[in-house]
Amino acid sequence: MLVSHRADTQETDVENLSTIWHPTRDFLAVSNYKSNDGGDVGFFTKQGGKSFFKSKKKASARPAVIAWHNPEIEEICGMHWNSESGTLLVADLKSRLSIYRIDTKEFSKSKFLHKATIRDEIPQALAVKAVKLKPSSANFATRKLAKQEAFNEGDEMLLSALAETKRRTNLTSADEKIYVKDNTETFPVYFIGCSKGGIYSFDEEGNFTKAFQCDNGVLQILNIPESDLLVVSTDSMLFYQLTVENRRATEVNRVKLTGKKNHFNLLLIENSTVAMCYGEREIRIWDLKGGDNALFRLNSEKGYDNKDDIVCLSYSAKKNMISAGTSQGKIARWKRRRDLKNQGLDQQWKLQNSVETDCHIVSLNWSSTTAALVVNSINSVTIFRDEGIHVVFDQTYAAIQKSSTVISLIRLIHPLEAQDISLPFGVKGFRLSGKFITVWDEENVHIYEIKDSNDAPISITSSANFTCSAKDATVFGAMVIVLESNKLDIRTFQGTIRQTLGFREIEGLPILMDFNGKYMAVATTNGYLSVYDLSGKDIKQQFHSSQFSKTVPEFDKFLMIRVNSAGNRISFTATQKNDEIFERLSIWDGETDSVGYFSFQYGITDQQQYEAEAEQAKPGERPKTAAIRKIEREQNRFRLAEHYPGNHVWDKVDPRLLICEAIHNTGDQSQNLLISMYVTTEHGVQMHDLQIKSDKAEQLLHLSVPYMYFFKNMESEEEDDPGVEKSIARLLLRKTLREFVGLDENDSQAIGAMLDFSFYLCMGQMDNAFKSIKYIKNESVWDHMARMCVKTRRMDVARVCLGNMQNSRAARNVRLSIERGDSADIQAARLAIELGMIEEAKTIFYSIGRYDMINKILQTEYKWDEAFKIAEKFDRINLRNTYYNYAKYLEANGALEPALENYEMSGTQKIEVPRALFMNPKVLEIYVKRRRDPDLQKWWALYLESIGDIATAKNFYHISGEYLSVVRLLCMDNQLNEAAAIVDETGNKAAAFHLARQFELQGNIEEAVNYFSKAHAYGSAIKLAKEHDMIDKLANLALQAGGSDLVEAAKFYEERDGHTDKAVMLYHKAGMIGRALDLAFRTEQHSALDLIVQELNEKSDPRILERAAQFFAANQQDRKAIQLLAYAGKYSEAINLCRERNVVVNEELAELLTPPKGDKAMTQSRNQMLEEVAKCCLHQGNYHFAAKKFTQAGNKIEPLRY
């Protein structure tokens, strides 16, 4: 809400000429002029009122332009600061330009730098831009040479000075290095727009040149930061975009606008966004970087009429708002919605309600440091400050300040009613108390009685007023309680002081008051709290005042205090000396004089923290108790480390229930939360619930079960949720506590029972909880209690509630979930679904990471976009299933084409698409041809074959690679040659087998065997070869087949005379070495034996090895025989054979005849064998090997004898 504060120039008939805010402090300069008296400049704060300083008046001076400096140049028509380099450009009416370097620390050291003169034109617009200058510039070359010399001479001090100069002028970062090889450097260049359209550049080195020529006189020049763009407006309503390079400008774009040139105004909003007005009922916003632009028109629904033309603009980056002055004295405002920044410009800015100023607006200007707006109307200057809307509540009424003189009075009970009350003075504050509203301004207190009847609208009548400088005040009975600057007085309606509440010096001065029923809480400057009972003749203090500044580290002051309806507890928040809000919500219990709290940072209460610390202090590692596990669960749920306590309220009737806002550190209202708790002397602070605040709700204002009241978010366009929310007088939002949704607000018994049930359930006292609802017969009450069980996770209570609700299906599903052993969260989510609490169910599933369930819920709500987002990011295992379900949904709704696309995404198109298109064969054929999917083509071929279209079916079989079906159809037409060609071409085994069977049926055994072989059906080929005595082919077929077919073929050849060589070979290939050797021995096939023996080794069957050795020994192949005997482990026989046949023992044979090392029992036998080998070698005269074997046998004496 914008509240006006008039800047008093202290004189009449004064013409205020211009205004300008100080760029870093809350100072406003106002230039004015009075005929026959002269002009001066007055200085004001944002509070308005009288100026705190005035310049000397000059009778002959009429201020034209003002800026925050102290120039000594006459006839000034323009000035422009370059804050980065500390220079000032000054232009006068004689077209002279001067640049000064200003020493901000010592003004006397400021110096003149350069000057230039423009011919035949008068400067009208100034701007400064950082420009990259090319190496051809003499000044650039000079600077580069200076750097080069610094490097060459090693003068580090000079180099450091150059770098520091560049850093100080903000042309580079402090840690940037200076490189000699740079060929460009950035310098500030001033651009001056003149009356005949010329634009000139003038830099701090004195370089002056004409940069560009416009069609007409220049009105404004705007620098677009972080780009090479300048934006220019001219007298002829032309809008130029210019690019700057090396002090010269080039036109990029030119737009002709229509409107009134006197009100043609450009305004830079952000780095690349410009707003403009031109005397019409609209403004245009243009994103120069993105190219998007949009028109924003005034709307009669927001309080603007057809004569409201926009004459001036101002932008507040702090509030993210464009403000415009209209010709009818109104302030129009467009506020940007940051949550829509990714959408088009036309969606980002929203028009606000008009603000009446009752003056002719010439210009307006937002402060860059605070939310203050100055409005110049020539004859007056008014400062509007953005202040929080003041609102107060009582049981029956609420009062909201709508402007400095208007209060809206609202009846909260049925029938709802709101009336605006205009007052003849500026309101500083007000309070409601019963049928009275107390209002005060700077000097007086006014008491009004509220008149309310069914026959007439709400009104007020004056009951009393008296002079008093009040900070806070209210009426109780016949008393008027007034908080002044240093005391708290009890007055009569006439203003007479009846009683003054005294405070000890140690307590400090009273600064805050709060009222609830007959109780008043007071806070003092030194951190003391007191509670007073107002019901008696004299005000009495309930408890001894207590100091709480020690409970807050670095305590500065109380921020907010609230007293409950019983007057025995005060909740408070405080700020610390660093101006930060302390992270705890504290509650003082006057009966026990103790302080409990809830810590936002840790998510626990004082009692929980004490219990947790006590548990940690116990020695040894002990299992966690149920109480500690509960504390940890609540800590995980309620920890709000990124939030701090905001407004908090007690229920107006129940002294136990307290609700507090949790404000996010970033100020993002969408992340603000509400926490509720019960506070009693017996149980301390017990956390009850945590919920997200509605997007439509701003600040929490009041609590009166079953309702909470909020400021309504005026930017929200959502409709009220029936039965849960209700907008009141456009400014308030009444929201039903979710435990009480659906209850009759007039059924006090049901509301009280539900409140007690909620309390006892929070305490874990189930017996008391059920007693509190024992006599409740209303089904809606049971429904609400079941809903409460979702957040408390009490499934035992939920089953009782569902039974009383006679909801058998829900009771069964909850019971099954319990029997399955689902977690408490899953059970609660299942209950929430059964009760229709879909959002709560989704919240629970989010918290436990069950994104598959969230996906299913979103699908049942037909929120497919959200379902796909969840599936793609968190539930990819069900992504294809999501596409499938979406396709089924689209098909059911007749959207066949997108349904087919989603069937494809789900990977089920091979089954679902033919089914979906089966009744439309032409479309299905087009789809099959377009997709070129082999499975679909095969299905289509089967379909065509089923309807007798054999030729086309054959074609689709061929395209799909289903060659078996192609061959099958060709064989049906007895086209075996064509079938054989396809088999030869494709090598398809199934097709080859089918063709072989056809050849077999026709008696073409040769071809049948051939194609059985191609099909790798070697058993069938061998069977035919045997039956038709195809001896030559049988061996090759058996070798290709392997396994048992080798043995069968070998037996076949063994029985045939003259073919035993093939039988030996096949037995050998089949791994039947013994059978192959036996057959080879019997038929004396030495060459075959040699091949078989090559594969024998020490791992072969000893019996086979021994028999082969006998065969070779009998055939004078002694060395092979000895080798095989050694492989068989017959070392003694091998040595004897070696000795008898005098086989020369070489190194290889000696090693073969050496038994391997075994256990100790075999050592003696091994040594004997080694000595036998040694003797054999000795007998042959091979003394070297003999000595080696004697040594291996452990006989070291024997070698010495030889």
Query: Can you tell me the CATH topology of one domain?
Result: Methylamine Dehydrogenase, Chain H
Give unreliable regions as ranges: 135-182
Give the radius of gyration: 50 Å
Distance between the termini: 124 Å
Could you please describe the fold and organization of this structure?
The structure is a single chain. A hairpin with a 4-residue loop joins strand 40 (479-483) and strand 41 (488-491). This protein is an alpha+beta fold and 1202 residues long. The model is unreliable at 135-182 (pLDDT under 50). Helix 11 packs antiparallel against helix 12. A five-stranded mixed beta sheet has the order 5-1-30-29-28, with no helix packed on it. Strands 23, 24, 25, 26 and 27 form a five-stranded antiparallel beta sheet that branches. Strands 43, 44, 45, 46 and 47 form a five-stranded antiparallel beta sheet that branches. Among the domains are: 1-68 and 363-387, no CATH class; 135-183, no CATH class; 388-501, Beta Barrel (Lipocalin), CATH 2.40.128.630; 502-619 and 631-693, Methylamine Dehydrogenase, Chain H; 748-927, Alpha Horseshoe (Serine Threonine Protein Phosphatase 5, Tetratricopeptide repeat), CATH 1.25.40; 1144-1202. It contains 37 helices and 60 strands. The radius of gyration is 50 Å and the shape is elongated. Helix content is 34%, strand content 31%.
